[in-house]
Write a structure and sequence with these properties.
- The protein is mostly beta strands and about 90 residues long.
- The chain is built from no helices and seven strands.
- A hairpin with a 2-residue loop joins strand 1 and strand 2.
Length: about 90
Amino acid sequence: MKYAWNGSTEIWKAAELPESFVFRCSDANGHSVARGHAAWCIPVVEIETVSVDQAGWPAEPTVAHSISSSLYGPGHIFLEQVTSGPSSTK
């Protein structure tokens, strides 16, 4: 990972950073793997979460019909989106 701050630049190995740093890592074939076994990793720098009611209007997560999370890397590069559907009720 390239870390630039206040005019200085350092290169850090993703495998050596604490687990609190979130990455999406892949092997040489593009399959998702753990950081320590990856050919490359992209740091997650932004997470956008949107929760909506059944009509699609914004709602608090505790009462939401669905919740969508989008992950972005440096430069707002889209990495992944996960959407949870409504919980089943009986």
